[in-house]
Amino acid sequence: MARYMAEQSDSGFLTDVFKIALGVFIGGLLAALAYTKYMAWEVEYSLRQATAEMQKQAKQRAELSRKQAEEERQRREAAESERAAREGQRAADAAQRQRHEADMRAAWSQIYRPSPACQADQMTLTCANAHAAAHKRFIEIYGEMPPRF
Questions:
Q1: Are 103 and 146 in contact (CB under 8 A)?
Q2: CB within 8 A of 96, min separation 6: which ones?
Q3: How do the domains of the chain map onto residue ranges?
Q4: CB count, 10 Å around CB of 115?
């Protein structure tokens, strides 16, 4: 080994040192390049992940908004339907009351027919008794008070 060292000149030694230094430098550059590529890939991957997450959240918000709008529309339709049903029921009840009142008036007209003397003067005792008797009979038959005129 000493012989090898003795034969080697200083310029050969410096050339070897330069070669080693150049190899280390190129290796460092390649490592830096690989690190930069890896970091760029990581950033791109993170960006894709973040974009996908934002799109997912936007889709969820849009779906939630659509569901809320649909529920609101259904609530409005249900309220409108309920209001229409109440209006219809109210109209049917009013028509039923009118028919019932007309029927009761017709029934009262059948039960109480004042005589010509009572039509002239209703304040006589005979007319009052006839009216009271008709009133009592109407209540017995229909179970309610006769209509008022």
A1: no
A2: none
A3: 112-149
A4: 10
